[in-house]
Amino acid sequence: MSTSTRADNKTVGEMSKKDLLSLINQALQPVTKTLGNLKTEVEGLRKELKEKDAQIQVLSDKLDEREQYSRRNNLRIFGVKEEEGEKTDELVKQVGAQLGLNISQFQIDRSHRVGRRGTGDKPRPILVKFYGYGPRHEMFTSKKKLKGTKLTIREDLTSQRLDVLNKAIEAYTFRKVWTHDGTILINAGDARPSRVKYTADLEDIIKRFPPGN
Known about the structure:
The chain is α+β, with helices and mostly antiparallel strands. Helices cover 49% and strands 15% of the residues. The protein has three domains: 17-70; 72-156, Alpha-Beta Plaits (2-Layer Sandwich); 157-212, no CATH class.
């Protein structure tokens, strides 16, 4: 006679410890099997979600790359005094003159202030789009001549890259971080500046070159 049969013919009080454990194990077998199946299913779903997240990130990065490319002829000029009835194209040309550049109206596609107008004296930046990359490049590479003034010229980054830029500056300080053609460059300690576009890039740089070391 099997253990299970003997156990079935006894009351709980008459069962030995071995018989009782055997009976409990038999009762738990379906539950254990179900839990095992659920665990396998959950692991499969986690793997599938991880793959989907990776695919979404790839698509997001591609969209960001396209958006940044569409801004390649843009610049943002900070610190230009804001007045009623102003013509921002003229202000852009005046900044160009300060840099020793002769920016003509034919080189400017359009320009305007961006952001909400505040109650203080801080002027909103001017976003300017040039008809070609040439005048934009000339103005951006001449920006060092504005040192000592209230004016600053920056690239027109996507919101994603601007977020990465701010995090990079927070980690490595403003002196070690700059941008070039939409790419963030960091003097993190390697022989050459590290090129960063996305959060994952920055996280990798921080792991390899911890800030402050």
